[in-house]
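A reminder from the course coordinator: this example appears on the midterm review sheet, so study it carefully.

Given structure:
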């Protein structure tokens, strides 16, 4: 007992006792992350956002040597600008109490810029008549390319894709939660409904839906990127609409493949579809390594009969293994678990976080961090943003699952970003090769830079949540991880099993299962 007492006293001496009002190391890093997210966003806005207030666009590329820019980006990269502003606003909200000056200086500016960015989405919007599996009607989605006038985009055929609507729906829900602007929720809901029109509701010989959302109304392939991204927004919409009891008309095909109409509660409808899409992708696109195939391919033959799209077989899984396709399933699974408490989702996301580290990164002994795969050049691809989606899925998974995969991933993203920021910043911007630097490269994209900014802001939120949990007495991201562990005071007094005494402990520093933590009330 004397030896235990000595060990506990040594542990107590090494525990940082904070003065009232002092910040923990995690809080300090979080604030620095927000500052860096803001700096990256400001530099990217200054270099890549062009035009006037009611006619803003994001240049597709930016030359860090000359400042020259190209023409407007497509709508998908533009979404990253909205994402970064949402992430910064969320982080500022989370840090408001510990960094009020940072909040006061920046919140309204970023809210104003967010509103501008969303308003200028209308340059990508257009109308056409959609012939889908159970409906034929005029629709008003966002096109891939930017138009010459508001609401004047050509969005027919392959000029609009369902995944773009999904990413936008996600960001508009976040913007609604931050601002309370009902117009954002209305558009997010419309886009989610539109994307679900791409669900193949025709029935097979056994009466089961073929399922899966095609890449777009002009495509026959069913992609991970046109299914996984809608799961999380659907869960969020279910959370929003379930208390309202709002209903909607839903069109689908019955077991005889006849079009039927049903009045359904929005909240239930969105949750049911989140489960259906998740199950379809898990069944059809999960790779043996535990991550996800890119797509089920097709020859893009589209057959429309009497105004309705017909089912066309599109073969088995194929294509590359891309990080964001696993990230959307991790995030979707995390939110489905929080909504349903089904342990299957926990098992899935724990396995997928581990598999994603194995497939999309390599452990670097020199840095002690995972280095995530990227493209050869910034102009070549979009992997920086793909990895952004994976990283935020680790943040979604972290509070829920045991194991170190999500923690290792998040800490590696943090360390890699910091190294790049402190060693390879040029004109306030980061190279896609964070550790190696710019080399001969001179072209970057706002798409990538806004992704880096969002990563910093998401990491800030993660660290602030960790700090909050630690101060509340949770030693682990899993709330009940401390159960069935013995609690000792720093003087060595056994207080009993944590699960039995946690509510009666006076607030203090204790040793729980050999780890120091603040517990009690």
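Designed residues:
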């Amino acid at each position: 007992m004397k030896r235990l007492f000595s060990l506990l006293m040594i542990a107590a001496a090494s525990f940082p006792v904070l003065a009232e009002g002092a910040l923990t190391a995690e809080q300090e890093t979080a604030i620095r992350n927000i500052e860096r997210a803001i700096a990256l966003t400001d530099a990217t806005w200054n270099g890549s956002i062009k035009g006037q207030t009611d006619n803003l666009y994001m240049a597709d590329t930016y030359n860090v040597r000359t400042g020259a820019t190209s023409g407007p980006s497509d709508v998908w990269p533009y979404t990253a600008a909205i994402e970064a502003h949402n992430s910064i606003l969320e982080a500022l909200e989370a840090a408001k109490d510990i960094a009020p000056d940072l909040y006061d200086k920046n919140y309204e500016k970023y809210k104003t810029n967010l509103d501008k960015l969303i308003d200028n989405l209308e340059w990508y919007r257009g109308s056409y008549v959609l012939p889908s599996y159970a409906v034929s009607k005029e629709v008003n989605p966002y096109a891939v390319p930017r138009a010459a006038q508001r609401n004047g985009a050509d969005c027919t055929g392959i000029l609009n894709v369902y995944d773009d609507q999904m990413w936008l729906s996600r960001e508009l829900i976040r913007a609604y939660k931050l601002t309370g602007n009902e117009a954002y929720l209305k558009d997010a809901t419309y886009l989610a409904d539109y994307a679900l029109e791409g669900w193949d509701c025709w029935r097979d010989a056994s009466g089961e839906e073929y399922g899966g959302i095609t890449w777009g109304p002009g495509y026959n392939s069913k992609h991970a990127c046109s299914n996984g991204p809608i799961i999380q927004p659907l869960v969020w919409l279910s959370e929003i609409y379930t208390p309202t009891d709002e209903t909607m008309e839903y069109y689908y095909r019955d077991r005889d493949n006849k079009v039927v109409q049903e009045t359904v509660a929005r909240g239930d409808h969105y949750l049911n579809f989140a489960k259906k899409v998740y199950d379809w992708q898990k069944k059809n696109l999960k790779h043996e390594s535990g991550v996800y195939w890119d797509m089920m391919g097709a020859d893009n033959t589209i057959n429309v009969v009497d105004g309705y799209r017909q089912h066309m077989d599109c073969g088995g899984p194929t294509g590359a293994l891309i990080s964001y396709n696993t990230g959307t399933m991790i995030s979707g699974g995390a939110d489905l678990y929080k909504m349903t408490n089904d342990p299957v989702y926990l098992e899935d996301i724990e396995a997928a976080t581990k598999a994603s580290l194995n497939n999309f990164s390599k452990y670097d002994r020199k840095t002690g961090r995972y280095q995530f795969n990227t493209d050869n050049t910034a102009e070549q691809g979009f992997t920086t943003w793909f990895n952004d989606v994976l990283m935020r899925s680790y943040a979604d998974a972290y509070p829920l699952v045991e194991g170190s995969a999500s923690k290792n991933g998040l800490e590696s993203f943090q360390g890699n970003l910091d190294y790049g920021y402190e060693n390879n910043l040029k004109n306030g911007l980061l190279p896609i090769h964070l550790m190696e630097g710019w080399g001969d490269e001179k072209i970057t994209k706002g798409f990538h830079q806004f992704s880096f900014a969002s990563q910093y802001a998401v990491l800030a939120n993660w660290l602030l949540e960790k700090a909050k949990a630690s101060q509340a007495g949770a030693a682990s991201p899993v709330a009940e991880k401390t159960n069935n562990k013995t609690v000792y005071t720093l003087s060595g007094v056994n207080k009993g099993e944590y699960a039995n005494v946690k509510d009666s402990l006076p607030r203090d520093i204790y040793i729980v299962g050999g780890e120091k933590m603040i517990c009690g009330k």
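The chain is about 45% helix and 15% strand. The two ends are 27 Å apart (CA to CA).
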